[in-house]
Specification:
α1 (4-17) runs parallel beside α8, α5 (166-174) crosses α8 and α7 packs across α8 (218-237). The chain has eight helices and ten strands. It is an alpha+beta fold. It is elongated, with a radius of gyration of 21 Å. β2 (47-54) and β3 (57-63) form a beta hairpin. The two termini are 30 Å apart. The protein binds a DNA duplex through loops.
DNA sequence: CTCGATCCCTGGACGC
DNA sequence: TGCGTCCAGGGATCGA
Protein backbone atom coordinates (compact mmCIF):
# COMPACT_ATOMS: atom_id res chain seq x y z
CA UNK A 1 0.00 0.00 0.00
CA UNK A 2 1.56 3.20 -1.09
CA UNK A 3 2.68 5.32 1.83
CA UNK A 4 5.09 8.22 1.86
CA UNK A 5 8.17 6.35 0.54
CA UNK A 6 6.20 4.63 -2.22
CA UNK A 7 4.50 7.85 -3.28
CA UNK A 8 7.82 9.68 -3.23
CA UNK A 9 9.27 6.94 -5.42
CA UNK A 10 6.47 7.27 -7.93
CA UNK A 11 6.76 11.05 -7.91
CA UNK A 12 10.47 10.90 -8.65
CA UNK A 13 9.79 8.53 -11.50
CA UNK A 14 7.11 10.75 -12.97
CA UNK A 15 9.46 13.73 -12.84
CA UNK A 16 11.73 11.88 -15.19
CA UNK A 17 9.01 10.79 -17.58
CA UNK A 18 6.19 13.30 -17.73
CA UNK A 19 7.57 16.61 -16.51
CA UNK A 20 7.14 19.22 -19.22
CA UNK A 21 4.84 17.02 -21.28
CA UNK A 22 1.68 18.47 -22.68
CA UNK A 23 -1.60 16.64 -22.24
CA UNK A 24 -3.33 16.27 -25.61
CA UNK A 25 -6.43 14.37 -24.65
CA UNK A 26 -8.06 12.56 -21.77
CA UNK A 27 -9.79 9.19 -21.65
CA UNK A 28 -11.79 8.05 -18.64
CA UNK A 29 -13.20 4.58 -17.98
CA UNK A 30 -14.74 4.02 -14.58
CA UNK A 31 -14.91 7.31 -12.77
CA UNK A 32 -16.41 6.63 -9.35
CA UNK A 33 -13.08 7.41 -7.67
CA UNK A 34 -12.79 10.80 -9.38
CA UNK A 35 -14.20 13.86 -7.64
CA UNK A 36 -15.11 15.71 -10.81
CA UNK A 37 -14.63 13.64 -13.98
CA UNK A 38 -16.77 16.09 -15.92
CA UNK A 39 -14.03 18.66 -15.54
CA UNK A 40 -11.25 16.45 -16.82
CA UNK A 41 -11.55 17.73 -20.39
CA UNK A 42 -10.01 20.91 -18.98
CA UNK A 43 -6.75 19.02 -18.65
CA UNK A 44 -6.37 18.87 -22.41
CA UNK A 45 -3.88 21.42 -23.65
CA UNK A 46 -2.24 21.85 -20.26
CA UNK A 47 1.37 21.08 -19.53
CA UNK A 48 2.66 19.14 -16.54
CA UNK A 49 4.84 21.82 -15.00
CA UNK A 50 5.77 20.10 -11.76
CA UNK A 51 5.24 16.84 -9.93
CA UNK A 52 5.08 17.05 -6.18
CA UNK A 53 4.19 14.94 -3.21
CA UNK A 54 2.06 16.08 -0.31
CA UNK A 55 1.74 13.32 2.26
CA UNK A 56 0.33 10.42 0.26
CA UNK A 57 -1.01 12.73 -2.42
CA UNK A 58 0.70 13.33 -5.70
CA UNK A 59 0.17 16.68 -7.34
CA UNK A 60 0.65 17.18 -11.03
CA UNK A 61 0.90 20.93 -11.37
CA UNK A 62 -0.58 22.18 -14.58
CA UNK A 63 0.25 25.19 -16.65
CA UNK A 64 -1.37 26.54 -19.76
CA UNK A 65 0.05 29.03 -22.25
CA UNK A 66 2.24 31.69 -20.64
CA UNK A 67 2.66 29.79 -17.43
CA UNK A 68 4.56 27.07 -19.18
CA UNK A 69 7.57 29.26 -19.79
CA UNK A 70 7.83 30.27 -16.17
CA UNK A 71 7.47 26.69 -15.06
CA UNK A 72 10.35 25.62 -17.25
CA UNK A 73 12.72 26.84 -14.59
CA UNK A 74 11.50 24.19 -12.16
CA UNK A 75 14.38 21.98 -11.18
CA UNK A 76 14.13 18.50 -12.61
CA UNK A 77 14.65 15.28 -10.73
CA UNK A 78 15.42 17.05 -7.53
CA UNK A 79 13.79 16.35 -4.21
CA UNK A 80 11.24 19.01 -3.49
CA UNK A 81 10.62 19.37 0.21
CA UNK A 82 6.89 19.61 0.60
CA UNK A 83 6.58 21.34 3.93
CA UNK A 84 5.89 24.57 2.15
CA UNK A 85 3.42 23.01 -0.21
CA UNK A 86 0.42 24.98 1.07
CA UNK A 87 2.17 28.10 -0.12
CA UNK A 88 3.52 26.67 -3.32
CA UNK A 89 0.00 25.58 -4.09
CA UNK A 90 -1.09 29.01 -5.17
CA UNK A 91 1.59 29.31 -7.80
CA UNK A 92 -0.35 27.07 -10.16
CA UNK A 93 -3.83 27.75 -11.37
CA UNK A 94 -4.70 24.08 -11.50
CA UNK A 95 -3.44 20.73 -10.31
CA UNK A 96 -4.32 17.11 -10.74
CA UNK A 97 -4.46 15.39 -7.38
CA UNK A 98 -3.76 11.67 -7.36
CA UNK A 99 -4.05 9.35 -4.37
CA UNK A 100 -3.02 5.75 -5.04
CA UNK A 101 -5.20 4.30 -2.32
CA UNK A 102 -4.29 0.65 -1.91
CA UNK A 103 -3.63 -0.57 -5.40
CA UNK A 104 -3.25 2.51 -7.55
CA UNK A 105 -0.48 2.74 -10.11
CA UNK A 106 0.36 5.60 -12.42
CA UNK A 107 2.95 5.57 -15.15
CA UNK A 108 3.89 6.75 -18.60
CA UNK A 109 3.20 3.90 -21.01
CA UNK A 110 3.82 3.60 -24.75
CA UNK A 111 0.52 4.39 -26.43
CA UNK A 112 0.50 1.23 -28.51
CA UNK A 113 0.44 -1.02 -25.46
CA UNK A 114 -3.15 -2.16 -24.82
CA UNK A 115 -4.92 -0.85 -21.74
CA UNK A 116 -4.81 -3.10 -18.73
CA UNK A 117 -8.03 -4.42 -17.27
CA UNK A 118 -8.22 -1.89 -14.47
CA UNK A 119 -6.82 1.16 -16.21
CA UNK A 120 -9.43 3.84 -15.64
CA UNK A 121 -7.76 7.04 -16.80
CA UNK A 122 -5.34 7.70 -19.62
CA UNK A 123 -3.84 11.00 -20.68
CA UNK A 124 -2.38 11.20 -24.15
CA UNK A 125 0.91 13.07 -23.99
CA UNK A 126 2.81 14.99 -26.63
CA UNK A 127 5.64 12.46 -26.75
CA UNK A 128 3.53 9.63 -28.10
CA UNK A 129 3.08 8.09 -24.71
CA UNK A 130 0.16 7.94 -22.31
CA UNK A 131 0.04 8.67 -18.62
CA UNK A 132 -2.18 5.90 -17.29
CA UNK A 133 -3.84 5.35 -13.94
CA UNK A 134 -4.59 1.77 -13.04
CA UNK A 135 -6.33 0.75 -9.83
CA UNK A 136 -8.07 -2.59 -9.36
CA UNK A 137 -9.82 -1.69 -6.11
CA UNK A 138 -10.40 1.95 -6.86
CA UNK A 139 -9.60 2.98 -3.29
CA UNK A 140 -7.55 5.71 -4.86
CA UNK A 141 -8.74 9.15 -5.76
CA UNK A 142 -8.26 11.70 -8.51
CA UNK A 143 -9.41 15.28 -8.67
CA UNK A 144 -8.86 18.26 -10.89
CA UNK A 145 -8.37 21.13 -8.48
CA UNK A 146 -8.09 24.86 -8.84
CA UNK A 147 -5.57 26.55 -6.58
CA UNK A 148 -8.40 27.49 -4.29
CA UNK A 149 -9.78 23.99 -3.96
CA UNK A 150 -6.31 22.58 -3.50
CA UNK A 151 -5.65 25.02 -0.67
CA UNK A 152 -8.82 23.79 0.97
CA UNK A 153 -7.81 20.21 0.41
CA UNK A 154 -4.47 20.73 2.06
CA UNK A 155 -5.86 22.70 4.96
CA UNK A 156 -5.63 20.84 8.23
CA UNK A 157 -3.11 18.35 6.93
CA UNK A 158 -0.69 16.94 9.45
CA UNK A 159 3.02 17.69 9.63
CA UNK A 160 5.44 16.21 7.15
CA UNK A 161 7.06 13.40 9.14
CA UNK A 162 10.43 14.01 7.50
CA UNK A 163 10.50 17.68 8.35
CA UNK A 164 8.60 17.88 11.62
CA UNK A 165 10.60 19.40 14.46
CA UNK A 166 11.11 17.68 17.79
CA UNK A 167 8.92 20.26 19.44
CA UNK A 168 6.07 20.00 17.01
CA UNK A 169 6.14 16.22 16.96
CA UNK A 170 5.94 16.14 20.72
CA UNK A 171 3.12 18.63 20.70
CA UNK A 172 1.16 16.62 18.15
CA UNK A 173 1.61 13.31 19.96
CA UNK A 174 1.82 13.99 23.66
CA UNK A 175 -1.29 16.15 23.84
CA UNK A 176 -3.50 13.37 22.54
CA UNK A 177 -5.31 10.59 24.34
CA UNK A 178 -5.47 8.34 21.31
CA UNK A 179 -3.31 5.31 20.94
CA UNK A 180 -0.03 5.98 19.24
CA UNK A 181 -0.84 3.69 16.35
CA UNK A 182 -3.96 5.69 15.60
CA UNK A 183 -2.01 8.93 15.83
CA UNK A 184 0.67 7.76 13.43
CA UNK A 185 -1.99 6.74 10.91
CA UNK A 186 -3.98 9.95 11.31
CA UNK A 187 -3.20 12.10 8.27
CA UNK A 188 -4.16 15.22 10.20
CA UNK A 189 -1.43 14.47 12.73
CA UNK A 190 1.28 13.38 10.32
CA UNK A 191 0.86 13.19 6.60
CA UNK A 192 2.12 10.19 4.72
CA UNK A 193 2.49 7.46 7.34
CA UNK A 194 0.53 4.26 6.80
CA UNK A 195 0.33 0.85 8.40
CA UNK A 196 3.72 -0.47 7.37
CA UNK A 197 5.86 2.43 8.51
CA UNK A 198 3.79 2.94 11.66
CA UNK A 199 4.48 -0.64 12.73
CA UNK A 200 8.13 -0.49 11.70
CA UNK A 201 8.84 2.72 13.57
CA UNK A 202 7.05 1.49 16.70
CA UNK A 203 9.06 -1.72 16.63
CA UNK A 204 12.28 0.22 16.23
CA UNK A 205 11.46 2.53 19.10
CA UNK A 206 10.13 -0.30 21.27
CA UNK A 207 6.75 1.28 21.77
CA UNK A 208 3.58 -0.81 21.89
CA UNK A 209 1.01 0.33 19.31
CA UNK A 210 -1.72 0.63 21.95
CA UNK A 211 0.21 3.08 24.11
CA UNK A 212 -1.58 6.38 24.54
CA UNK A 213 0.10 9.45 23.05
CA UNK A 214 -0.20 11.55 26.17
CA UNK A 215 1.42 8.82 28.23
CA UNK A 216 4.60 8.58 26.19
CA UNK A 217 7.65 10.12 27.79
CA UNK A 218 9.42 12.90 25.95
CA UNK A 219 12.34 10.57 25.46
CA UNK A 220 10.17 7.84 23.95
CA UNK A 221 8.48 10.39 21.72
CA UNK A 222 11.77 11.62 20.31
CA UNK A 223 13.04 8.08 19.87
CA UNK A 224 9.93 7.41 17.85
CA UNK A 225 10.39 10.52 15.76
CA UNK A 226 13.96 9.63 14.89
CA UNK A 227 13.01 6.03 14.15
CA UNK A 228 10.19 7.13 11.89
CA UNK A 229 12.37 9.57 9.99
CA UNK A 230 15.21 7.13 9.61
CA UNK A 231 12.93 4.37 8.40
CA UNK A 232 11.13 6.60 5.93
CA UNK A 233 14.41 7.88 4.54
CA UNK A 234 15.85 4.41 4.17
CA UNK A 235 12.66 3.20 2.55
CA UNK A 236 12.79 6.05 0.04
CA UNK A 237 16.36 5.09 -0.86
CA UNK A 238 15.17 1.54 -1.46
CA UNK A 239 12.28 2.82 -3.52
CA UNK A 240 9.58 1.77 -1.11
CA UNK A 241 8.06 -1.51 -0.03
CA UNK A 242 6.35 -3.75 -2.55
CA UNK A 243 3.55 -5.40 -0.62
CA UNK A 244 0.51 -6.45 -2.59
CA UNK A 245 1.11 -4.82 -5.93
CA UNK A 246 3.05 -1.63 -5.48
CA UNK A 247 5.12 -0.77 -8.51
CA UNK A 248 6.89 2.49 -9.16
CA UNK A 249 6.42 4.69 -12.20
CA UNK A 250 8.71 2.39 -14.17
CA UNK A 251 6.71 -0.66 -13.20
CA UNK A 252 9.44 -1.84 -10.87
CA UNK A 253 8.99 -3.06 -7.31
CA UNK A 254 10.65 -1.51 -4.29
CA UNK A 255 13.08 -3.31 -2.02
CA UNK A 256 12.32 -2.12 1.47
CA UNK A 257 9.96 -5.01 2.28
CA UNK A 258 13.10 -7.10 2.78
CA UNK A 259 13.95 -4.93 5.73
CA UNK A 260 10.64 -5.13 7.53
CA UNK A 261 11.11 -6.17 11.13
CA UNK A 262 7.51 -6.24 12.29
CA UNK A 263 5.04 -5.66 9.46
CA UNK A 264 3.97 -8.93 7.89
CA UNK A 265 6.15 -10.97 10.26
CA UNK A 266 3.51 -12.44 12.53
CA UNK A 267 4.77 -15.66 14.11
CA UNK A 268 8.36 -15.01 13.10
CA UNK A 269 11.08 -14.29 15.66
CA UNK A 270 11.81 -10.72 16.63
CA UNK A 271 15.18 -9.67 15.22
CA UNK A 272 16.19 -8.32 18.62
CA UNK A 273 15.01 -10.94 21.11
CA UNK A 274 13.64 -13.87 19.09
CA UNK A 275 10.22 -13.61 20.75
CA UNK A 276 7.56 -14.31 18.17
CA UNK A 277 6.04 -11.26 16.53
CA UNK A 278 2.35 -10.85 17.28
CA UNK A 279 -0.45 -9.24 15.34
CA UNK A 280 -3.39 -7.52 16.96
CA UNK A 281 -5.97 -5.03 15.78
CA UNK A 282 -5.31 -1.53 17.04
CA UNK A 283 -7.21 1.45 15.76
CA UNK A 284 -8.98 -0.88 13.40
CA UNK A 285 -5.77 -1.86 11.65
CA UNK A 286 -3.66 -4.94 12.00
CA UNK A 287 -0.62 -4.10 14.06
CA UNK A 288 2.54 -6.15 14.25
CA UNK A 289 4.79 -5.92 17.27
CA UNK A 290 7.15 -7.78 19.56
CA UNK A 291 5.35 -8.51 22.83
CA UNK A 292 8.64 -8.49 24.73
CA UNK A 293 10.42 -5.47 23.24
CA UNK A 294 7.21 -3.46 23.04
CA UNK A 295 5.51 -4.02 26.38
CA UNK A 296 1.75 -3.47 26.48
CA UNK A 297 0.40 -0.52 28.41
CA UNK A 298 -1.08 -1.19 31.86
CA UNK A 299 -4.69 -1.38 30.85
CA UNK A 300 -7.02 0.71 28.92
CA UNK A 301 -10.06 2.10 30.58
CA UNK A 302 -12.96 -0.04 29.46
CA UNK A 303 -16.52 -0.25 30.58
CA UNK A 304 -16.49 -4.01 30.74
CA UNK A 305 -13.50 -6.14 31.44
CA UNK A 306 -15.00 -8.89 29.36
CA UNK A 307 -14.71 -8.07 25.76
CA UNK A 308 -17.34 -9.17 23.35
CA UNK A 309 -16.22 -11.47 20.66
CA UNK A 310 -17.53 -10.49 17.34
CA UNK A 311 -19.94 -13.11 16.15
CA UNK A 312 -19.80 -14.41 12.70
CA UNK A 313 -22.83 -16.14 11.28
C1' DC B 1 -12.47 14.11 21.73
C1' DT B 2 -12.17 9.35 20.87
C1' DC B 3 -14.02 5.12 19.89
C1' DG B 4 -15.75 1.22 17.07
C1' DA B 5 -18.55 -0.17 13.19
C1' DT B 6 -19.58 0.12 8.38
C1' DC B 7 -18.92 0.98 3.69
C1' DC B 8 -16.32 1.35 -0.57
C1' DC B 9 -13.74 -2.45 -3.90
C1' DT B 10 -11.48 -6.63 -5.88
C1' DG B 11 -7.90 -10.12 -5.91
C1' DG B 12 -5.97 -13.69 -3.53
C1' DA B 13 -5.91 -17.24 -0.03
C1' DC B 14 -8.27 -20.96 1.83
C1' DG B 15 -11.78 -24.61 2.75
C1' DC B 16 -14.71 -27.90 0.77
C1' DT C 1 -12.42 -26.74 -11.46
C1' DG C 2 -15.27 -23.94 -9.01
C1' DC C 3 -17.71 -21.77 -5.58
C1' DG C 4 -18.31 -19.43 -1.11
C1' DT C 5 -16.14 -16.92 2.53
C1' DC C 6 -12.89 -14.09 4.63
C1' DC C 7 -9.43 -10.72 4.60
C1' DA C 8 -6.50 -6.65 3.45
C1' DG C 9 -6.57 -1.63 3.96
C1' DG C 10 -6.94 4.34 3.40
C1' DG C 11 -10.32 7.12 4.30
C1' DA C 12 -15.03 8.94 4.89
C1' DT C 13 -18.91 8.82 7.75
C1' DC C 14 -21.94 8.00 11.53
C1' DG C 15 -23.59 6.90 16.06
C1' DA C 16 -22.17 6.09 20.83
Amino acid sequence: MPELPEVETVVRGLRKTVLGRKILSVWIGKSDFIDNPEEFPLLSGQTIAAVERFGKFMLLRLASGDEVEAAATVEVGQFVADTKAPDVVREYAASLLVHLGMTGQIASIAAEIPLEKHTHVSFTLDDGRELRYTDARRFGRMAYLTAELLAKEVEGAGADPLEVSATEFSQRVRTRNSRIKALLLDQSVLRGVGNIYADESLWRSKIHPARVGSKLSEKETQTLRRALQDILNRAIVMRGSSISDFLDANGEPGEYQRHHRAYGREGKPCDRCRTLIRRVIVAGRSSHFCPKCQPAPRQRKSKRSTRKLRKRS
